[in-house]
Amino acid sequence: MVFPLPPRDVEDRDMRFELQRFISFSAFPQSGNVSGLRLAQAGFFYTGLGVTVRCFCCRRNHSDWRTDDGILFRTGNFMHETDCDFMLGTDTSNVPMHEDRSQ
């Protein structure tokens, strides 16, 4: 007999959607030099705590927004866990804002 997996909490379900992740940045402090759109596209949403964001897939938090050159913070794989399915391109739960419908 196989038991169904318990449903993910609301935060997990909502944050599969890139649009929901992007919307979460509407409350992000203005002092941060980050792009909510770029972070949402990179799998992150704003947690509502200080300047902390979290990957919807690997659940890793990031809050270090210092840059050496004073320009907008760049996103990258260093923000995710090394085995993050989203970063590795193996996640199937992400729903982008604009899907490629040409296929």
Description of the structure:
With 103 residues, the protein is α+β, with helices and mostly antiparallel strands. β1 and β2 form a beta hairpin. The radius of gyration is 15 Å and the shape is globular. The protein has a single domain, classed as Inhibitor Of Apoptosis Protein (2mihbC-IAP-1), Chain A. The mean pLDDT is 80. It is 21% helix and 8% strand. Strands 1-2-3 form a three-stranded antiparallel β-sheet. The protein has four helices and three strands, in the order αααβββα.
Give the topology, please.
Layout: H1 10-14, H2 18-24, H3 36-41, E1 44-46, E2 53-55, E3 61-62, H4 85-88
Antiparallel strand pairs: 1-2, 2-3
Pfam family, one: BIR
GO molecular function: cysteine-type endopeptidase inhibitor activity involved in apoptotic process; ubiquitin protein ligase activity
InterPro entries: BIR_rpt, IAP
Record keyword descriptors for this entry:
single chain; 103 residues; alpha+beta; Inhibitor Of Apoptosis Protein (2mihbC-IAP-1), Chain A; 3 strands; 21% helix; globular
What proportion of the residues is helical, as a percent range? 10-25%
Return the average pLDDT rounded to an integer: 80
Shape: globular
Q: What is the annotated CATH architecture?
A: Orthogonal Bundle
End-to-end separation? 38 Å
Q: What are the low-pLDDT stretches, counting only 5+ consecutive residues below 50?
A: none
CATH class: Mainly Alpha
Strand order of the largest sheet: 1-2-3
Rg value: 15 Å
Task: Look up the CATH topology.
Answer: Inhibitor Of Apoptosis Protein (2mihbC-IAP-1), Chain A
State which percent range the strand residues make up. Answer: 5-15%
The largest β sheet comes out as: 3 strands, antiparallel
- What is the CATH superfamily label? Inhibitor Of Apoptosis Protein (2mihbC-IAP-1), Chain A
Please state the structural category. Answer: alpha+beta
Number of strands: 3
How many alpha or pi helices? 4
